[in-house]
Design goal:
The protein contains 10 helices and 72 strands. It is mainly β. Strands 55-56-58-63-60-61 form a 6-stranded mixed sheet, with no helix packed on it. The longest helix has 46 residues, at 820-865. Residues 624-658 form the Laminin EGF-like domain.
């Protein structure tokens, strides 16, 4: 609109240059238009008509009569008992709610997604989805003169929503739509007004797909109905997401046209001349993953019928949020497209207009050619003026250029690679396995080898065709028409959550009590009226609305609403329903039932201002005063202290029953759940045996049993113990002759009492009375003071009271252990005494042993002294030893034994001789001896004590007896057989020895 500017002030200056400001409205200079004069006349203009409003509506039906647009029905969050009729005047911008009557007294129920068609002075309303109800097949006539309704017999019609209708040659043609049994149908239904009969036309040409929420326009001049868009978007492989068809009403023939590639549903479309204007809609095509599609869009596209071409119009950035919507109505009036109402998260009541490019305002040829998007304006060379393009008039006006050529607008058929993509293209057909523009058989232009069966996406719709059967989740052509036509029960026929969710492909809507096909969830409740989906049988809620006792709890369940009693105290009933009112659910479905609750008392999203639960009234309409029936709270929804119950919606409070052990209980409990001062059960009538407490609280109290030689920790910091103020414990001695040590540790001050009982004492005896303990307390029970025998059954009782929470205390009770020091000293003394005795005994034994050994030695010495003995003289000669192995046999050498010990028979004796050891070269190694003693067992020959030595024996050493070698007798008279041996050796015979005496 403007060139780029450096500052805001400069831009404002340029705007003011084109504007002459006048009160309440800008008077634009030539070439500019719009409320702010900021749009050039060579561009299309969007405007929000702030001075005009209509009643909030979405998915209404509309017909245009002269300067007025009639809006019938539609969805609104406001409860209505009958289908409203509105009238909008284009000239005045005023919308009027038309009062209506009925000849029979019955008015049509509110609905949306229905169709409207004008026949003379009657508006024909067909089908639609009843507000919070099933899809309807009703047919109503509304007379615009008498403003009255008449219901027609609709026995031959099908339940339908999301369809469109047009009057053609005295009959109403209904295109497409959704049927709960047949799904999204591609039918063309015909209603004959004169005969009041219904039929489904047998059509030819391209096999179309059924849809919901499409837009259609009828060109009476061309005799064609153009149908664009709708839901669902994709169902057949390689097929376009947003099909665009044209239906010839004379030939009953479908033709597919080029698609703009902007899938949407619940959009609007109007036709003016050779252009079709399509605006808004729901473009959310993402099913599993979000890819950026908007639920409501401001997309604005235009189709040029002559050029067979789509182009897109831009919407001013400042108006994008205001004009984005779906479910709106549109009409063409005074060279402008008007849109009414719609939905973009809220129900809208605004009126918007779009003014196309004004070609006549362009004054030069260049701007004329550039005006608008697509083929819009052309320059008349002869008249030198810019005109709107009309292909039928280009020759008359001698245009400087032709934006499009009808012969060039056909698609290039050779680019199609499949039959379906081929027959989508204008003028193309599939023949000889290729896409061609010159197929000889005309039927090939509109059909593929599979026929029309794949275009039926519902089992029941498929089985309607004689040549088709539903097999393996798809519709296929069969050769045997007698095959059974089996289909599962439609989801719409299921009336309960369990039955619905157990059926394949069905979903249950809690808030609407409806079962729908999971493939239709986007179209069944396009305005978010289903507040909760259930897809699993395990998720079905078995709670009934009547189980909720307050308005707030009732509204938490999306299937429930609140019916106020109307007495101003807040009393009411929760029942099933929707925003429209209470529902009566039966096997036939659900329908509004205001006999259960009048519309004035029905609250589905809000609650009555006064909510006193029947225990008070509101003095100012909102605040409760002087709650009665022992209740308290801002809404009298709680019981007073000492009372319990849930005083909601008229329920009462009851006094706490705690068996004398407490005055208070849980105020919100249905039964008396007492705040017992000790460990009791709910009503303080039983001890908490599960936690180890014993006793009889009806006559006394409860005690916790302590075991000897254990440490106990009690923590009263949870919600279950916050009301306790007393804890009682007891212990019985397990050993008779040992004291008992008791230790108490507390983290908070407590009053502590100790007593005991026995079989010999009638009453409980106090030991310690109400002692204040804030840290550690110790006490010893002496076996000398108390009788610990089993037959006496002494029991010590401990009472802790008047403590605060959280409270933690530890108790240790045990038999004191023996003093380790005494044990150690006693053991040490005994050990020393034993050690001393042992040492003394050991020393005494050693003295006895020494005495015995001494005596034995003396005896041995005496015996040894009495033995015979003698001495000999041995001479060692340093000569070479003989060979170890003599070469010649030699005579035996007589050797004299040094000692002879005859055996018992005196025939043999052990004879010891002195031998000289052989060494190499006669040298004795250092540290070794050359002389050794040898003993042998020898025979004795008579009295000669000779020993025969074999020649191999080394040379003996000859002893020489000394002169005093014999003695006559020993002093004791025995013969002296001992001999003294003397050894003589020269200086060289001590090889290896330092002292000759070592030999």
């Amino acid at each position: 609109m403007f060139s780029a500017l450096g500052t805001v002030e400069t831009e404002m200056f340029l705007v003011m240059e084109y504007v002459t400001q006048r009160p309440y409205q800008c008077q634009c200079f030539e070439g500019w238009t719009g409320r702010d004069c900021g749009t050039e006349e060579t561009e299309g203009l969007w405007e929000v008509r702030e001075e005009s409003t209509v009643f909030s509506r979405a998915s209404a039906a509309s017909v245009m009569i002269a300067d007025e647009l009639w809006l019938i029905g539609g969805y609104d969050f406001i409860k209505e008992s009958s289908m409203p009729v509105f009238k909008y005047n284009f000239t005045s911008g005023i919308s009027v709610h038309v009062p209506v009557t009925s000849e029979s007294g019955n008015l049509p129920q509110p609905r949306y997604g229905h169709s409207a068609a004008l026949y003379e002075d009657v508006i024909i309303i067909y089908g639609g989805s009843l507000i919070d109800g099933p899809v309807s097949s009703e047919l109503w006539f509304f007379n615009i003169t008498s403003l009255s309704w008449v219901q027609k017999d609709s026995s031959g019609s099908k339940s339908m929503e999301g369809h469109t209708a047009h009057m053609v040659n005295g009959s109403m043609l209904v295109f497409f739509g959704y049927n709960p049994t047949y799904g999204y149908v591609g039918w063309v239904q015909q209603y004959n007004i004169s005969s009041n009969s219904w039929s489904i036309l047998d059509v030819t040409g391209f096999p179309v797909l059924g849809s919901y929420g499409h837009a259609s326009v009828y060109s009476e001049d061309l005799g064609q109905v153009f149908v664009y868009g709708g839901y669902p978007f994709v169902r057949i492989k390689s097929f376009t997401q947003d099909p665009f068809y044209v239906f010839d009403v004379h030939q009953l023939k479908w033709t597919i046209l080029p698609s703009p590639g902007r899938p949407r549903f619940l959009h609007s479309a109007v036709i003016e001349g050779s252009r079709i204007y399509v605006f808004g809609g729901n473009s959310h095509t993402d099913s599993n993953e979000y890819r950026g599609a908007k639920c409501y869009t401001d997309s604005f596209i235009v189709y040029n019928i002559d050029c067979k071409e789509w182009y897109e119009e831009e919407v001013s950035s400042g108006l994008k949020e205001e004009v984005s919507r779906y479910g709106h109505q549109a009409a063409w009036y005074n060279d402008m497209m008007w849109t009414f109402g719609g939905y973009n998260g809220v129900i809208l009541n605004s009126v918007n207009t779009y003014t196309p490019v004004n070609c006549s305002s362009v004054t030069n040829e260049t701007n004329c050619e550039l005006a608008g998007n697509g083929p819009t304006c052309m320059w008349d060379l002869s008249a030198s003026e810019c005109l709107q393009i009309n292909l039928n008039e280009t020759i008359q006006h001698n245009a400087s250029f032709l934006e499009c050529d009808p012969t060039d607008s056909l698609f290039n058929c050779s680019t199609a690679d499949s039959c379906i993509t081929c027959i989508e293209k204008q003028g193309c057909g599939w023949c000889d396995d290729q896409c061609s523009s010159s197929c000889t058989n005309e039927s090939q232009i509109y059909t593929c080898g599979a026929g029309t069966c794949p275009f039926h996406v519902d089992c029941h719709d498929c089985n309607r065709e004689p040549e088709c059967r539903w097999v393996s989740q798809g519709c296929s052509e069969i050769g045997n028409p007698d095959l059974p036509k089996g289909c599962v029960t439609p989801c719409a026929s299921q009336t309960g959550c369990s039955d619905c969710t157990s059926s394949s492909g069905c979903m249950w809507c809690e808030s609407q009590n409806r079962c729908i096909d999971s493939q239709t969830y986007m179209t069944s409740f396009p305005f978010g009226t289903c507040l909760a989906w259930v897809t699993s049988q395990d998720s079905c809620d078995n709670i009934k609305c009547s189980d909720y006792h307050t308005c707030e709890l009732c509204h938490e369940d999306p299937a429930c609403g609140w019916c106020d009693q109307g007495d101003g105290t807040g009393l009411g009933t929760c029942m099933g329903g929707s925003n429209a009112g209470p529902l009566n659910v039966s096997a036939a479905g659900s329908e509004l039932d205001f006999e259960q609750c009048p519309a004035s008392d029905w609250y589905f999203t809000e609650c009555p201002s006064c909510q006193c639960n029947g225990h008070s009234i509101c003095v100012d309409g909102e605040n409760c005063s002087n709650c009665s029936d022992f209740t308290t709270g801002e809404e009298c929804d709680s019981c007073l202290l000492g009372y319990h119950g849930i005083p909601l919606n008229g329920a009462n409070c009851s006094r706490c029953e705690c068996n004398g052990h407490s005055e208070y209980c849980d105020q919100n409990a249905v039964s008396s759940k007492c705040y017992c001062e000790q460990k009791f059960w709910v009503q303080c009538d039983r001890c908490d045996e599960l936690r180890g407490y014993k006793g009889n609280p009806t006559i006394n109290t409860c005690f916790y049993e302590l075991l000897m030689n254990f440490k106990y920790t009690f923590q009263l910091d949870d919600t279950s113990g916050e009301n306790l103020t007393k804890i009682n414990l007891y212990v019985q001695p397990s050993v008779q002759n040992r004291d008992i040590e008791f230790i108490l540790n507390v983290n908070e001050p407590v009053n502590f009492t100790i007593s005991y009982t026995t079989t010999t004492v009638e009453e409980e005896q106090i030991i310690v009375n109400d002692t204040y303990v804030d840290d550690v307390y110790r006490y010893r029970f002496s076996r000398y003071t108390y009788d610990f025998r089993n037959e006496v059954n002494t029991t010590f009782l401990f009472y802790l009271s008047d403590f605060t929470h959280p409270f933690t205390f530890r108790i240790t009770i045990y038999h004191p252990a023996v003093n380790l020091v005494v044990i150690f000293v006693t053991f040490f003394v005994c050990f020393v005494l034993i050690l001393v005795v042992f040492v003394i005994a050991l020393k005494g034994r050693e003295r006895v042993d020494r005495f015995r050994r001494r005596r034995q030695r003396e005896v041995e010495m005496a015996v040894m002294a009495s033995r015979p003995f003698a001495s000999i003289f041995v001479e060692l000669v340093n000569n070479a030893p003989p060979d170890l192995i003599p070469t010649t046999k030699s005579k035996p050498t007589n050797a004299v034994g040094v000692a002879i010990e005859p055996l018992k028979d005196s025939k043999v004796a052990l004879t010891t001789i002195i031998m000289q050891l052989p060494y190499a070269e006669g040298q004795v190694p250092t540290g070794q001896s050359r002389v050794t003693l040898a003993t042998a067992l020898v025979n004795q020959k008579g009295k000669k004590q000779e020993v025969r030595i074999v020649p191999e024996i080394n040379e003996p050493i000859s002893p020489r007896m000394s002169e005093a070698s014999t003695r006559e007798a020993t002093p004791n008279g025995r013969p002296n057989t001992a001999r003294d041996i003397e050894v003589s050796c020269d200086d060289t015979c001590n090889h290896g020895y330092d002292n000759p005496a070592m030999v």
